[in-house]
Give the backbone structure.
Amino acid sequence: MSSFLQLAFLIAVILVAAKASGYLAIKLGQPSVLGELIVGLLLGPSLLDIVHLPFITNTHIGETIYELGELGVLLLMFLAGLELHLSEMTKNTKVAAYSGILGVLVPVSLGFLAGEVYGMDLDNAMFLGLTLGATSVSISAQTLMELKKLRSRVGLGLLGAAVFDDILVILLLSSYVALADGGNAIQILIVFGKMVGFLGLSAAFGFWVLPKLSVIVSRLPISQSVLTFSLVIMLIYGLSAELLGGMAAITGTFVAGLMFGRTYEKAQMESGLRALSYSFFVPIFFVNIGLTINLRDVSMNALWIMIGISIFAILGKILGSGFGAKLGNFTWRESLQLGIGMVSRGEVGLIVASIGLAGGHLTQEVFSAVVGMILITTLVTPPLLRWAFKTKEPDQAKLQPTEQ
C-alpha cells in the first residue's frame, strides 16, 4: 500500500470514528467533542495505535495527521472570532482582564506548590506551575457553539480572557526561560513589545485595510474568491502571531476572525468555511489530541503526580478565572461557567510542557504526569460546561448582549 493510500485509509477511519463517537455522545446527553476526544484516545497509542498498524509503513504519517489537525484548530478559532462582534467583546474587557490574569496567577502558584509538595527542585516546580497556567479554549469554544452560548456574556468573557491568558503565559514563560539562561530585563521587554506590536498591527490592518481588500477580492471573476481570501488572511494572522508576536497561532486566527467578521463579505464565505472545517479539519484535530497521548508511558509514581496536579489544575482555573469574573460583576453561576471554560489545557499546555522538557526544566517523569493532566483537563471540560449551563438563572436572558 502506497504512502498516500495509507494516509487516505487513516483519514477515513478518523473521520468515521469522529462522527460516530460525536453522535453517540450527543445521544448520551454530552457535547459531541467529548466523544471525539475519547475515540482519539482509543485509536491512539494508549490502546489501538492505528498509526503503527502492521501495514502502515510511512513513518511520517503521524506528523501529517497532526499538521492537518493543527489546521483544524486554526479554523475553529477563526470561526469563533467570526461569530462575534468586536463591540460585544469590548463590553467584557474588565471581565476578560481579571479572569485572564487571575486564571494564570492562581494555577501557576498552585502548580509551584504541588511541585514543592512532591519534592521537586525549584526549576521543575516553577515550570510545572507555568504548564498549569496555560489554557486552550478551542475545546470550550466548540462546546459553547454546540450549546449556542458562544455569544453569551460567558462566551464573550471566556474568549477575551483566553487572549489575556495567552499573553501572560507567554510573557511569564519567555521571562523565566530568559532568566534561567542568563538573560536580562531587556529581553523580557522585547517579548512584551512584540506582543503589543502584533496586536496593534493586526488591529490596524483589520480596521483599515482588510475591508477594502475584501471588496476588491469579492469583485474578481474567480470561483470562491472570498473564501480563499479569508483562508489566506487566517493563515497570515496565525503566522504573524507566532513569528512576530511570540504568541499562539490560535490567538492570531481568533483575532483574524474578529476582524473579518466586520466586513460585508463575511456572508459570502461563512457557510463554505464551516462546511470545510467541520467535515474534515476540525474532527481530525479533536481525534488527534488522543492520538498524541500515550497513557502507557505514565509510571506509577507519575500517576500520583498526575492525579495531584490535575486537581490543582482544575481548581486553579475555576477559582482564579471564576473569581476574576466575579470581580467583573458576573453572577456566581456565570463566574463558575467561565472558570470551567478555562480548565482545558489542550494543545497549548502540550506546547509549554514540550518546551520545558526540551530545555531540561521538566524531567521525563514530570512531563508524563503533565501530559496526563492535560488529557484529564481536556476531557472533563465539555461535560462540566454542559452541566454548568444546564439550568439558567431567572434573569439570565436579560444579561445576554443583543445579537445583531
